[in-house]
Amino acid sequence: MIKNLIFDFGNVLLTLDEPKTWNAFKELLDPTKIDDLFKEVMDPFERGEISEEAFFNRLQRRSKVVLNGDVYIDAWNSMLGVFPQHRIIALSELREKYKVYLLSNTNITHFRFVSRRIQKQNGISNFAEVLFDKAFFSHEMQMRKPETRIYQQVLDVEKLIAKECLFIDDKKENVVAAESIGMNVYLHNPEQEIFNLLPSLLSKLNG
What is the DSSP string of 36-47? Predict the structure, then answer.
């Protein structure tokens, strides 16, 4: 029986348009200095290994022309969409039957931006505490999906049994890693609505 639901955030609950940020970076950054962008800039930032200031300094150093810091912040945040109200309602209803968790690869800049937007648009302060039994963020854990240890830490901290968990993510490598430690998984297509699919999925898993 599934007792615990573990959601990815972007492209599952939060609308996301990653090409917006990549296109903005292509305009801002020197094309000869983009190859190491994930390894040397994004990955350590989402692990909480470098500060917000260091992250944006590294972007500036890779620029065609060094610009005001707000330009880079806006480019970085441009991928972030909204948390639709119907998903917030659906999460609340799910928590009547299941433990509901969030596991997200993210960073302090995105977390702060999304928190403010949810407070403004949905009237919810501290969404991570209000909407979930517990939220896990890569920049606080200093590890990222698809490392298996990040899933194991969620299980250990919350004292969960892997086979009683359903993990939902839009990236194949993330669900493969979660499945490898015994979780039930679902690879989500962001073009579909997860809460339209979830009832039949849970019914199937619970027999």
Answer: THIIIIIHHHHT
